[in-house]
Each structure stands twice: as structure tokens, then as C-alpha cells.
């Protein structure tokens, strides 16, 4: 074996689409290329031992924000025990501010940006000469339809046990400054018929969960409709073995034709991830995010009331110009629209993103270590930012987990952000923990907190018991069949 492609995925259930793209596009070198994935948390020595068991001449690592620290240790160890093995890095984390990074110093080469053309070319030069002199190679972006699609490289085991990531297009035409996709010039669609033929083949092999990584699924409505029709046809032909699709949407663009398509999906077949990020127009302008807030709110309301889609909506705290009060206002507005989940994110300074232009004026202080989370800014001091971080963590445990369906509305009352913040402060003060709070303990703590707010002990315990017994109110039910629900937890 000459070339090993590898990465540390965030979870076993995440199969790396990027590595499969590289493998599909290795050309004459494909036969001597092998793919081996790991999961973060594995011991570096064991990873290195496993890598070397293939006796590779070249190891290509996929580097992402979630694995850069652990992969740095792996590369350092690998180069110590096997200095003759050429290490080539690629992926978004090493595609910008490349030369400043420790992992880059340890590696032999880096391919920035798109890897499908440049990585195989570089491997050919390392194996057969002429010896590449440059360390950093800017990835050549080919016409999108010159790229071989990787879907046949999902194994039967991947299809059975892992989330299948797919993309009908790459890139994004928008320029939100906190996002890496802001650096794309536009979005490039893959030829739709080819793409759908690959989806058909995955479906015939048993795939039932498709997670689209397209940054904006609803950019081109004609394409969106055709893709949705593909899934509707499958659902109609095979209702007892339903297929499930996940898409990312821009919230203010939902023409009637798309709504009509969405409304045809039965419960448990469709999930949307929708980025609101901020409802504050001044903040949106500062970070160059174009969003019609009224349309976005109307569309979320329409989706929650008129469709069966499961809705996961993102907000980001810590953006320049966003105060705790303005964030709270946006949070409460979003809560009132009743999405199934609110993903409360804390701003991260992704390498290469244009948001750095605000660093000085807004006093943006970021953690120097991945994932480069904001620690403080002009409007939110460090202590308050930590309270928001805990809010986000507890929100996942209590609200997004769906385990407190009856209790949550009581806990939040008519001021969801303010009341949950007070609860988060109390919970932290009384547990000193944000992780490893066992469910039973959490239930007991919520019951205790409700009593501090004046609720009768018996009433609080009965309320919690209704959730703990597993009875969810209608709005919180996950209609996906068990197998899909399990996969969705991935
Ligand atoms: S946040 Fe979404 S819409 Fe904005 S640039 Fe990134 S992918 Fe595009």
C-alpha cells in the first residue's frame, strides 16, 4: 500500500465525505490507496500503530476544527517513529493561515482548498518524482463536473450503520463573515441527473438516511424540487421502509412551489437546519448577512404549523454588536415560532473568515486553541460569556434533548431567555458541573429549582414525573421510526 487516506471523525457514525472524494479521484493511484478512519478520543499510539500497519509511503490527513489538536499529536508521533513517511495535510482547518500552524510545521506538504486534482498529482510526484519542492500547494478547483462522485465508496457497513453525507452543490453565494463559506465565490451545482443516479444507487443498496451538506439547499428552487421529488417518489413507493432527508435552508426564501413540495412529506421524513444566527438587523449588517427577518420568521412559522418537517434552527451568541439583551430578544422571538430545536451556538473564529475585521473595534477576544470560541467582546465580558456557554450546554440537556417536554414551557414562562438564564445560573451554582449530569440528577435538580420559584413540591414532582415517565406532549414527539430516530441522534 502506497497511500493511506485518514482522518479523525467526530463520531463513529460520521463517515468522511471528503476522504471518499479524494479516493474516488485518485486516478491511476486509486488501487494503491486505502482509506482508514478513526474517531477522536482514540489513543495516538494506537492510531499511529494502525497507520503504520499499512506500510504507507504517504499518509494524507483530513484536518478539521474538531480534530486538529489530536491530529497534531498523531502527526508529531508518526514523524518521530517513521520519518520516511510523507505526511500530506488537507481540509478546511489547514487551508487558511496555513504557515502559522504547529501541525503544518510537522507535516511535509499541505494542500489548501479543493483536493481532488492537487492531492493525487502531489502523491504522484512524491512517489515517482520530480520531487515536489513546495510545502504548501494551493488546491486547483476543476470544473465541478470533472470531479468523480464518491458515493459508490460508501461500504455496505457505512450504509447500514453511519450517516451518509451527500452534496448536490458546493459553495455558497452569501458572505456571512463568521462562516468559511463566505470565501466561496458562488455555489457550484453537480450535474443533477448524475447526482440523482448516485442517490438511486445508494437507495437500492439500502440507504435510508441522507444528510445533505449543501450550504443552501433552497438556492435553486427547480433543483430543490427535483431532489425532493426523488424522495417523495421513494416514500410513495415504499411507505413501510421510509427514507429520511436532512437539508440546510436559508430561511427567507421559500417560494410557494417549494412549500407545496415540503407539505407533501409525511411525518418523520424531513429535517431542516435553518440558520437565523441573529435577528438583530444592525448585527446582520455588521457581519454582511443578508436576511429578511420578517420573511424568515413567517417561513419558520409556516414550516412549524403547515409541514411535518423537523426544524433545527441556529442562533449564534457573541457576534460583534450583539448585546445580551439583543440576543435575548432574538432568542425569545425564535422560541415563539416554536421550532423543535434551537441550536444555541457560541461564535467561533474559523481560520480565514473575514470576521477578524471587527476584532479591534468590538474587542473580540477568542480562545487561541481550536475551536477558537469567543471568550469576551466589547459588549459581553468573559464572565457573562461563560454564563452563555453554560446556558447553551444546559439548553441542549433540558430543551433540545426533548426529555422535558411538559416541564420546559413552565420553566420558561413568558420570558424564555431570562428565565432559562436564571435556571442555568442556579444549576451551575448548585452542581458545579456542565457535563456528566446524570438524567436522574437533572430531573431532581429541575424539580428543586421549580420549588425555589414558588411551585409546590408535589406539583413540581408530578410535572417532572410526566416527562420522566417518557410521556412527551404532542409537539415534542419525534415521529421518525425508531431506526431513523437512532440514526438522527448521530
Ligand atoms: S452562514 Fe450560511 S448563508 Fe452565510 S455564508 Fe455561511 S453557508 Fe452561506
UniProtKB/TrEMBL annotation:
Domain B12-binding: start-end pairs: 1-133
Xref: CDD domains: Radical_SAM
GO MF annotation: an example: catalytic activity
Radical SAM core domain: residues covered: 158-392
Keyword vocabulary terms for this entry: Iron, Iron-sulfur, Metal-binding, S-adenosyl-L-methionine
Protein name (Swiss-Prot/TrEMBL): DUF4080 domain-containing protein
A Pfam family reported for this protein in Swiss-Prot or TrEMBL: Radical_SAM
Lineage: Bacteria, Pseudomonadati, Pseudomonadota, Betaproteobacteria, Burkholderiales
Cellular component GO terms, alphabetical: cytosol
Organism superkingdom: Bacteria
Keyword DNA-binding: no
Cofactor(s) this protein requires: [4Fe-4S] cluster
Amino acid at each position: 500500500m502506497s497511500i493511506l487516506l485518514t482522518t479523525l471523525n467526530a463520531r463513529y457514525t460520521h463517515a468522511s465525505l471528503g476522504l471518499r472524494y479524494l479516493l474516488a479521484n485518485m486516478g491511476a493511484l486509486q488501487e494503491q490507496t486505502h482509506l482508514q478512519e478513526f474517531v477522536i478520543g482514540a489513543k495516538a499510539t494506537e492510531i499511529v500503530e494502525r497507520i503504520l500497519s499499512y506500510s504507507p509511503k504517504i499518509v494524507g490527513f483530513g484536518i478539521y476544527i474538531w480534530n486538529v489538536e489530536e491530529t497534531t499529536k498523531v502527526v508529531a508521533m508518526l514523524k518521530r517513529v517513521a520519518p520516511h513517511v510523507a505526511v500530506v495535510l488537507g481540509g478546511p482547518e489547514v487551508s487558511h493561515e496555513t504557515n502559522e500552524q504547529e501541525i503544518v510545521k510537522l507535516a511535509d506538504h499541505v494542500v489548501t482548498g479543493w483536493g481532488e486534482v492537487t492531492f493525487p498529482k502531489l502523491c504522484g510526484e512524491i512517489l515517482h518524482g520530480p520531487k515536489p519542492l513546495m510545502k504548501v500547494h494551493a488546491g486547483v478547483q476543476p470544473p465541478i463536473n470533472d470531479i468523480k462522485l464518491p458515493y459508490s465508496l460508501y461500504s455496505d457497513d457505512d450504509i447500514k450503520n453511519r450517516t451518509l453525507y451527500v452534496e448536490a452543490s458546493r459553495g455558497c453565494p452569501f458572505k456571512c463573515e463568521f462562516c468559511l463559506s463566505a470565501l466561496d465565490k458562488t455555489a457550484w451545482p453537480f450535474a443533477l441527473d448524475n447526482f440523482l443516479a448516485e442517490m438511486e444507487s445508494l437507495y437500492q443498496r439500502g440507504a435510508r438516511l441522507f444528510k445533505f451538506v449543501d450550504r443552501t439547499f433552497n438556492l435553486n428552487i427547480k433543483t430543490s424540487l427535483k431532489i425532493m421529488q426523488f424522495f417523495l417518489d421513494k416514500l410513495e413507493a415504499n411507505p413501510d421502509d421510509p427514507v429520511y432527508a436532512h437539508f440546510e435552508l436559508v430561511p427567507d426564501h421559500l417560494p410557494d412551489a417549494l412549500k407545496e413540495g415540503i407539505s407533501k412529506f409525511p411525518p418523520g421524513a424531513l429535517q431542516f437546519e435553518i440558520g437565523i444566527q441573529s435577528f438583530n438587523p444592525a448585527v446582520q449588517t455588521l457581519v454582511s448577512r443578508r436576511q429578511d427577518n420578517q420573511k424568515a420568521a413567517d417561513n419558520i412559522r409556516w414550516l412549524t404549523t403547515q409541514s411535518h418537517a423537523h426544524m433545527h434552527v441556529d442562533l449564534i451568541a457573541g457576534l460583534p454588536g450583539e448585546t445580551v439583551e439583543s440576543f435575548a430578544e432574538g432568542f425569545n422571538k425564535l422560541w415563539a415560532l416554536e421550532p423543535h430545536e434551537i441550536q444555541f451556538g457560541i461564535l467561533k473564529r474559523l481560520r480565514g473568515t473575514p470576521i477578524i475585521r471587527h476584532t479591534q473595534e468590538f474587542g473580540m477576544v477568542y480562545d487561541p486553541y481550536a475551536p477558537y470560541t469567543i471568550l469576551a467582546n466589547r459588549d459581553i465580558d468573559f464572565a457573562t460569556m461563560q454564563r452563555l456557554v453554560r446556558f447553551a450546554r444546559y439548553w441542549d440537556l433540558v430543551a433540545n434533548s426533548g426529555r422535558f417536554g411538559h416541564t420546559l414551557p413552565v420553566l420558561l414562562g413568558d420570558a424564555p431567555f431570562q428565565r432559562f438564564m436564571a435556571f442555568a445560573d442556579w444549576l451551575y451554582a448548585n452542581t458545579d458541573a456542565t457535563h456528566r449530569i446524570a438524567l436522574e440528577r437533572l430531573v431532581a435538580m429541575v424539580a428543586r429549582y421549580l420549588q425555589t420559584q414558588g411551585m409546590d413540591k408535589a406539583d413540581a414532582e408530578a410535572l417532572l414525573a410526566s416527562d420522566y415517565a417518557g410521556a412527551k406532549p404532542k409537539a415534542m414527539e419525534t415521529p421518525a421510526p425508531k431506526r431513523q430516530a437512532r440514526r438522527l441522534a448521530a
